[in-house]
Design a protein that fits this description.
- The complex is a heterodimer of chains A (157) and B (289).
- Chain A has 157 residues and is an alpha+beta fold.
- Helices cover 29% and strands 17% of the residues of chain A.
- A five-stranded mixed β-sheet of chain A has the order 2-1-5-3-4, sandwiched between helices.
- In chain A, a hairpin with a 2-residue loop joins strand 1 and strand 2.
- In chain A, helix 2 packs across helix 5 and helix 4 packs across helix 5.
- By secondary structure, chain B is α+β, with helices and mostly antiparallel strands.
- The chains are: A alpha+beta (157), B alpha+beta (289).
- Chain B: This is Molybdopterin dehydrogenase.
Chain lengths: 157, 289
């Protein structure tokens, strides 16, 4: 059972930690680094709740080992709103469109939409809605999520 | 943390990775994108002693073209493949197939080689490799060998890859100009495995089919090459083709099964329709399905 030292940046802050090889990135972010906005649902890559941004891309943090994130820049939902509490445009769109019910799946959805809308080529609303196939909302509140995605893509909901 | 304990190793060269595989004597598992392996580790269905992460090996990356062959580095991420300009030009069918693999979020981690080496029978990339006549480069401390994708798959997740071997390259022949591509996948939701999938290439010259490579996924224990219909299509004039008449032959090599998603009969029925409509649409034939 191997131990590894990892250096990474989380929400702009450098982190250094020693982790066991088998520690998942999701457990590392929640347990070791304290970013509990990373929600862990199924822990085997089906639900999408644990999605974070690693080096610009939305990935499921339960399907990655913490040791694999050595040298990466990670953004969790805690890293989105401004210090004065101003919401990120994705968060604002989710709020405006009532795109959350219990809120468990929300951080993952917000991170996928953030990663995609940060790209140089602005994706269409349809592309954003397609990417929602990687998330499960057990409240089944998909219509609000869809409206928020369409709005972010510049399409009428 | 749910996986059973293991030693994590991240070699920086192919030689080092092969040495580690050889020394582990079957106790090691390769980690590439991890989008299939990580769930298996979390569920403890896989409990390797050693996990060898190959994603830091630079020699396993990249797409190159040489003498009519496209060589794909196995650790190319699926979303990187979709955005790769070389691949878009040389291997559009692989790009199309990759768009259907998993979800956007898993394609950011999942690799082309990982999907091909795993051998899931309902997966898009193994069948597409078979259809295009790709060959796989397998390396171990014993040397490097090449095997046709068509001969690589034995059964669900059972392949010709030996425990000490690593997939180090995917060599895909470049089909000449005049080639048209077909890709169809019937699944319950986007991102789900295909219940019925068809992937293939047809080279048309002077109105006749000169070359055909067609394979099914989700239609048997491995990707299935549709040999009988390939043979029947060769030399045919596209003006006199009857896609519906060929549909029975198209599924003749398949061996679909019943599972909780669909029955074998459903898969055969849908397969015939999918083939007929894909062929007509690809060749711009009259509505046939």
């Amino acid at each position: 059972m191997s131990q590894h030292q990892i250096n990474l940046t989380i929400n702009g802050r450098p982190h250094c930690s020693t982790v066991e090889g088998r520690l998942t990135l999701s457990d590392f972010l929640r347990g070791d680094a304290g970013y509990t906005g990373v929600h862990v649902g199924c822990e085997h890559g089906v639900c999408g709740a644990c999605t974070v941004i690693v080096d610009g891309n939305a990935v499921r943090s339960c399907l990655m080992l913490a040791v694999q994130a050595d040298g990466s820049k990670i953004t969790t939902v805690e890293g989105l709103a401004a210090d004065d509490g101003t919401l990120h445009p994705v968060q604002q769109a989710m709020k405006d469109e009532c795109a959350l019910q219990c809120g468990f799946c929300t951080p993952g959805i917000v991170m996928t939409l953030t990663a995609l809308t940060n790209c140089a080529n602005k994706p269409s609303g349809d592309t954003l809605v397609q990417a929602m196939s990687g998330h499960i909302c057990r409240c089944t509140g998909y219509q609000g999520i869809k409206r928020a995605a369409m709005k972010l893509g510049g399409d009428a909901a | 943390m749910k996986p059973a304990p293991f030693d994590y190793l991240a070699p920086s060269s192919i030689a080092e990775a092969c040495q580690l595989l050889s020394e582990a004597g079957g106790g090691a598992t390769i980690l590439a994108g991890g989008q299939t392996l990580m769930p298996l580790l979390a569920l403890r269905m896989s409990q390797p002693f050693i996990l060898i992460d190959i994603t830091r090996i630079a020699a396993l990356k990249g797409v190159t073209r040489n003498a009519g062959i496209t060589r794909i580095g196995p650790i190319l991420r699926q979303n990187e493949a979709i955005a790769d300009p070389t691949l878009a030009q040389a291997q559009p069918l692989i790009v199309t197939a990759t768009r259907h693999v998993g979800h956007h979020q898993t394609r950011n981690r999942g690799t082309i080689g990982g999907s091909i080496a795993l051998g899931e029978p309902a997966a898009e990339l193994p069948a597409t490799s078979v259809a295009l006549g790709a060959s796989l480069e397998l390396t171990s401390t014993r040397g490097t060998r090449r095997i046709a994708a068509e001969e690589f798959y034995f059964g669900p997740y059972a392949t010709a890859l030996e425990p000490d071997e690593l997939l180090t390259g995917i060599h895909v022949p470049e089909w000449q100009s005049g080639t048209v591509w077909m890709f169809r996948e019937i699944s319950q939701r986007p991102g789900d495995f295909g219940l019925v999938g068809l992937t293939g290439a047809l080279t048309v010259k002077d109105g006749r089919i000169e070359r055909a490579g067609i394979a099914w996924f989700g239609m048997g224990p491995t990707p299935i090459k549709a040999r009988q219909v390939e043979a029947a299509l060769l030399g045919q004039s596209i003006n006199t083709l009857d896609p519906r008449a060929l549909a029975e032959l198209a599924i003749a090599d398949t061996a679909p099964f019943d599972d909780h998603h669909a029955s074998a009969e459903y898969r055969r029925t849908v397969g015939k329709r999918v083939f007929a409509s894909a062929l007509s649409e690809t060749l711009n034939l009259r509505a046939a399905a």
